[in-house]
Structure formats: C-alpha cells, structure tokens
Amino acid sequence: MFFWIVWAWAFATAAFGADYKVGQKFQIVLSNVVVAPSNPSTKIIPADAEVFDIDMFETEASTIALLQAQGKIVLCYFSAGTYEPYRPDSGQFQASDKGKALPEWPDEYWLKVTSTNVRNIMTARIQLAASKGCNGIDPDNTDAYANPTGNTTVTMAEAIDYIKFLGGIATGLNMTIGLKNSLQILSDVSDTISFAVNEECGFYQECYWYKDFIASKPVYQIEYPTPLPPSASVRTSSCAVNPTQPAGLSLVFKNLSLDGYVSYCDGSSDTTDTKPGDANAPPPRSSKTTVHPHPSTTSSRPTSSKPSQTRSSTTSRPTSSRPPQTTPSYSSRTTSSAMPSSPYPSQTNQPGGCIAKHWDQCGGQNWKGCTVCASGFTCKFSNPYYSQCL
Predict the structure, then answer these.
(1) What confidence category does residue 320 fall into, taking pLDDT thresholds of 50, 70 and 90?
(2) DSSP-based three-state secondary structure for 383
(3) What is the pTM of this model?
(4) At a CB cut-off of 8 Å and minimum separation 6, what does 89 contact?
(5) Could you tell me which residues come within 8 angstroms of residue 140 by beta carbon, excluding any fewer than 6 positions away?
(6) Backbone phi, then psi, for 316, in 5-degree steps?
C-alpha cells in the first residue's frame, strides 16, 4: 500500500506540467469526496475523463496522486471570493476583510480581495493545494463586481488584479489557474489563466464570450438540465455548435449538487464513486441560483438548499436549517436579441424587440442585450457595467 502511494506521488510530482487540450473530457465532483480504490490498478470512472475538478480541502493527497497516476489532470476547487464559516481556516479572517453578506445566507460574506490578510489566507490555500499535488486551482466567486451585493466590495479592476495575484502564486508553485464564470474579465486575464470553468453559458447564451479563448485553451462547461440524463433533443441542441456556442467546449450535464453523476454529449453517462466528506459543511450548491426546466418538460430542476456557489458536501450530511433559496441569481446576462434561441431561453422575445425578465441584465457598458424590462419591473443601475430588472 505504502509503495504505490509513494510511486503515485512521484508520478504526480512529475505531472504538474498539465497538458491542457481544447475539448478534453472532464468530470467535476464537489458533493462528497472521490474515493480512491484500494487497488491502484482499478480505474476511477469516468476512466476516459482527462480532467477532474474536486474540492481542495476535502480530497486526500493520495486520491489526487492516484488520479494523476491514471493520467488525469486534477483541478482543486476553493472559494476565493467569499467567506465560508465552515472552512478550517475561517477563523483567520478578520471583520475588516468582509464586505456585504450574501442576502440569503447572512453568515457568508463577500471578501475584500485587496485585503492583505485575505491574500495571505488565499496564498496559504494555494500552498495547501500544491502540497496535495494539485495540477491547477479552480478559485470560485471572483465575480462580486457583477453582483448587487458584491459590487460595493469588489470592483472589476480589483477582480482582475486579484486573479493575476492568485495566478502568480499558483505559477510560483508550479500550478496553473483557471477562471470560474467571471466572463466580463476573461479578456483581461486570459494570459494568466490556463483554462476556464463555466456554469450554464449554454442556458444563458453566454458561451460566445469564449470564442477567441477556446482557440487555444479549454473551457469546461457545466449545464444543469432536468431531467438527467437529458433527452436526445436537449442533448443535441445543447451540444450543437452555433453563433452563441463555439466548437470545442468540454460540456458535462450535472445535477445542481455536483455529485458523482455525469452525462456527456455522446449520450454516455457515469457515476464516480464517492464517500461522505466534512459533516460540518452545509449541503452543496451551484454557482447559479435559478432553476431552469427545459421548455419541453414541466418538471423543475432539483433545487439545492444553498445554490449560489459550488459547495463540497454529501447527501448524508444533515440538512441545513436555512430555507431553500427562492429568488433567482444576480448573475449578469449577456444574451443578445440577435442571437439564436437557446434550448434554455432566458428572455422573452416580443414583437418590436426583446423584453428582459425580472432579475435579467438590462444595461451596462458594451451591453447588447435587451434594455426594456417586463411590465412591473424597472432597469436599475448597479455599476457602469451592470444594470438589472428589479
């Protein structure tokens, strides 16, 4: 047992120079913890997934080493932009590091990313990722600037500087960094990042932001259709190349909980073996908050109890006492009325123009989407880059 762990760790150390490729098959598991088989010759499934995105705090170094020994790139997830009280280093944050609370979860806060203390904590997190053998880091919640509760805490310029700071630390430790969502700053940090992770750019018709980026770097795309696996028609439309969705996206269909189940564009599906993680962590949630049933079905996508950012968790953990979120997300919208319809339409087309629904983006610098809100709602200015129907 000890021999194969040492061997796998040596392999992983040599494998830090990850070979990222456009269109790579990937898996993301942030609910529960990926299980390392006792026999190292037993493949972790999906066996042909070249990239695994997993929770940095909860995944053991031996599991990361085995994944790499099986030829996989390992990306380690953590929240870089929010304070989470259940994380083991949460006691190191100071009151002055915190901005506004996330409205549905008053014990979680946006972080002031210019804070020296915040940056020191994130440096330690990246060092932990390196000590565990991660190939790259997947820092989440770096788009506070586009959120009405976060844009007074973090500006777009500060977010750009922060990604470059995190990237510098990661590079110094022989790791890579990706960009999670945060589309508005993609072009500003594209030289820093080696990959991108996006949730529901297909649903929101935002994938065209990656048209230039994906020419040389992979985009790991997550969609949350209901039911799973998606029907053939949903799969075909979601995976089709069109003006809003460039070729080469590494698309997976997942549950909002980001558990072990995954489905792909070729119709195949797998379930990665997992085990319970930290019992103190709340139930999982995705970085998107809106439930989007496909128009061909009346069933709703299962709602996570805290669905505004990805969360490592387990189905066996006690249910959070906090009520499920019922309001849609504050994510920015980039849908243009000139773009073809998505299988998950986010706006309503009306004669003479398009109408943005409640919570949709309706304005901002370089905004080309709908600017008129549905009846009963007003386009409210949040910052120079973002106005929203409220």
Answers:
(1) very low
(2) strand
(3) 0.73
(4) 121, 124, 125
(5) 77, 78, 79, 80, 81, 82, 180, 287, 309, 310
(6) -90, -5
